[in-house]
């Protein structure tokens, strides 16, 4: 997979961990190894501008996903085709505040948000209760499996 991370936020983050999680999540969802993904970390001002522009909602948010080729999850026998998955935009400052509330590290929050963004790029949503249950169930399984695999590195 081609995953490009661009940190424009001014906050130091563990980019290798975000890269490992994104790669792991895409692999778990059977996305073609030649798919492309961009992850951009921005400050609160830039995130607020994007949030207003694309979601018509005030204030900065934690993560936004911008799908490109509308790829969907594949299967072990038939991975999703190669293509441009899209962009994930993260705001470390918002993630840090949410991490305090959640009782875990900012990195854990950024990993959760990266996984969440990947799932949105693959067509998952959480507007309806059944969609929410499916998406957050998959997200939890990926994060648990990643934590176990990453701890064994």
TrEMBL record:
<feature type="binding site">
    <location>
        <position position="116"/>
    </location>
    <ligand>
        <name>Zn(2+)</name>
    </ligand>
</feature>
<keyword id="KW-0540">Nuclease</keyword>
<comment type="similarity">
    <text>Belongs to the endoribonuclease YbeY family.</text>
</comment>
<keyword id="KW-0378">Hydrolase</keyword>
<dbReference type="InterPro" id="IPR023091">
    <property type="entry name" value="MetalPrtase_cat_dom_sf_prd"/>
</dbReference>
<comment type="function">
    <text>Single strand-specific metallo-endoribonuclease involved in late-stage 70S ribosome quality control and in maturation of the 3' terminus of the 16S rRNA.</text>
</comment>
<dbReference type="GO" id="GO:0004521">
    <property type="term" value="F:RNA endonuclease activity"/>
</dbReference>
<keyword id="KW-0255">Endonuclease</keyword>
<keyword id="KW-0698">rRNA processing</keyword>
<dbReference type="GO" id="GO:0006364">
    <property type="term" value="P:rRNA processing"/>
</dbReference>
<keyword id="KW-0963">Cytoplasm</keyword>
<keyword id="KW-0862">Zinc</keyword>
<dbReference type="GO" id="GO:0004222">
    <property type="term" value="F:metalloendopeptidase activity"/>
</dbReference>
<dbReference type="Pfam" id="PF02130">
    <property type="entry name" value="YbeY"/>
</dbReference>
<feature type="binding site">
    <location>
        <position position="120"/>
    </location>
    <ligand>
        <name>Zn(2+)</name>
    </ligand>
</feature>
<keyword id="KW-0690">Ribosome biogenesis</keyword>
<protein>
    <recommendedName>
        <fullName>Endoribonuclease YbeY</fullName>
        <ecNumber>3.1.-.-</ecNumber>
    </recommendedName>
</protein>
<dbReference type="GO" id="GO:0008270">
    <property type="term" value="F:zinc ion binding"/>
</dbReference>
<keyword id="KW-0479">Metal-binding</keyword>
<feature type="binding site">
    <location>
        <position position="126"/>
    </location>
    <ligand>
        <name>Zn(2+)</name>
    </ligand>
</feature>
<dbReference type="GO" id="GO:0005737">
    <property type="term" value="C:cytoplasm"/>
</dbReference>
<dbReference type="InterPro" id="IPR020549">
    <property type="entry name" value="YbeY_CS"/>
</dbReference>
<dbReference type="InterPro" id="IPR002036">
    <property type="entry name" value="YbeY"/>
</dbReference>
């Amino acid at each position: 997979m081609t995953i490009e991370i661009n940190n424009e936020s001014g906050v130091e983050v563990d980019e290798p961990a975000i890269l490992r999680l994104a790669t792991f999540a895409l692999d778990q969802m059977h996305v073609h190894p030649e798919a492309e993904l961009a992850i951009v970390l921005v400050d609160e001002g830039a995130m607020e501008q994007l949030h207003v522009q694309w979601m018509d909602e005030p204030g900065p948010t934690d993560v936004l996903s911008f799908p490109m080729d509308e790829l969907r999850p594949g299967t072990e026998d038939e991975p999703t085709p190669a293509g441009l998955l899209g962009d994930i935009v993260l705001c470390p400052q918002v993630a840090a505040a949410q991490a305090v509330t959640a009782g875990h590290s900012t990195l854990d929050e950024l990993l959760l948000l990266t996984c969440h963004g990947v799932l949105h790029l693959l067509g998952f949503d959480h507007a309806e209760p059944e969609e929410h249950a499916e998406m957050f169930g998959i997200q939890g399984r990926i994060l648990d499996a990643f934590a176990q695999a990453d701890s064994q590195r």
